[in-house]
Amino acid sequence: MYTIVAVLLVITVVLILNTLRFRGQDFGKIEPLPFELSDQVVDKLKRAVAIKSVSHSDYSLNDLREFRKIIPFIHENYPRVSSSLEMELLNDYSCIIKWTGKEHSLKPVLLLAHYDVVPVVPEKWSVEPFAGEEKEGFIWGRGTLDTKNTFTALLESAEQLLAGGYAPDRTVYFAFGGDEETQGSEGAGRMSVYFREKGIEFEWLLDEGGVVAENALAMVKEPLALVGISEKGYVNIRIAAEGKGGHSSMPPAHSAAGIIARAVATVENRPFPAKLTPTVEAFLKGIVPFVSFPVAMVLANQRIFSPVIKKLLLAGDQTAALVRTTQAVTIIRSGKKENVLPSSGEAIINLRILPGETVDSTVKRVSEILKHQPVTVENCSMNDSNDPVEESELYNEPYRLIESVIAGVFKGAVTAPYMMTGATDSKHYRHVCRNIYRFSPMSLKSEEIALIHSADERISRENYRKAIQFYMTLLNEI
């Protein structure tokens, strides 16, 4: 009896001590450079929104007249950037700007944004989506959150610093892509090849990503600044079936539509297993200082409590996406008339792949699940599929720099590493940069986050001011 009590006591002490290691950590902050947002600066964002650089998966649908307005826009609105920094264009979907540093022995840094936007459904908007209208303290329009805001904020931050005579120690590259919303092959894809052919490797890069999310977790009162250190992969899988056509009054046991329906149900009933990736483990440890002590004990001792943690995360759609490869059936096609048997059918499943798995392994798994059913399974993404981007180094000098600037600009926010469940341009640069980070400097409530890619997209003046202040402060430390 005494032995059991002693063992339990030792385990309890170990759990408590392990938890206390993560409590009360403070990594400091960098005080932000002062910056006041003028109407003239806001007008530049409005002019960027007015450029209808809408991306389509079919590039022939893109209006290149609009895309070709981007470079004149930069020249007209950011004259110091245009006259003092080097600019190189590879095509209509790419713009590289080089800010040469004072120390040529240091590896350069790369900052990314994209100037293309997703299409709009005008009748669903309460304002004209490309007018850049301002009301109620917000600038409205497509791209104000994703990502003409960071595109212009980066340019404005450089413009402001150049006006003060600043030059970075380390060379800084800006890479602006024009097709991120359609996987980025002509923009970031071409630019990454350009850097590789030039033998240019980066110390670290920063792209769009997590935001300062208010009320993101019930267990954490503070806003969470989510810095993406890894990114899920992407693939579309096509399931196809052939069936016997004819009149619906004399059907076979299973029509092509029925075969596809059964295959879809089979796949949905066999979700990918849940795993705690290093990113999610780091995220959970990162919030330990800010949760109640009982919860902190669970999160700080993940090896013991991993089954409990996974079960809790699987309870919600958003958190479940952090611990498994997701599979979403997005398209089902079969039949055109109610009294005619379809001779074929197909379903498209969109998978977002967890780090540690690959495109090939996910396709193989779905094929294995359906091997006893009369269907074919294939990767139909062609060049759009990509493996996950594995975790970048955590708590190194670049991450600490980003964390410290966030702490200075977004007072009271808690910075935590995060896995991007969507795709960004940064995936193209994994061959020229090991340390890839993803953060969009703005503080958003859940209802504001929902406006990304939706009607009535808008950014507050204060968020735009902080975005510029964030980049100015970050650049000032490079």
Structural features, described:
The protein is an alpha+beta fold and about 475 residues long. The chain has two domains: about 40-230 and about 390-475, Zn peptidases (Aminopeptidase, 3-Layer(aba) Sandwich); about 235-385, Alpha-Beta Plaits, CATH 3.30.70. Helix content is about 35%, strand content about 20%. The protein contains 16 helices and 17 strands. It has helices at about 1-20, 40-50, 65, 70-75, 80-85, 150-165, 190-195, 255-270, 280-285, 295-300, 300-315, 315-320, 360-370, 395-410, 445-450, 460-475; strands at about 85-90, 95-100, 110-115, 135, 140, 170-175, 205-215, 225-230, 235-240, 245, 325-335, 340, 345-355, 375-380, 415-420, 435-445, 460. Strands 1, 2, 3, 6, 7, 8, 15 and 16 form an eight-stranded mixed beta sheet that branches. It has a four-stranded antiparallel beta sheet with strand order 11-13-9-14, covered by helices on one side. Strand 1 (about 85-90) and strand 2 (about 95-100) form a beta hairpin. Helix 2 (about 40-50) runs antiparallel to helix 6, helix 6 (about 150-165) crosses helix 16 (about 460-475) and helix 14 packs antiparallel against helix 16. It is globular, with a radius of gyration of 25 Å.
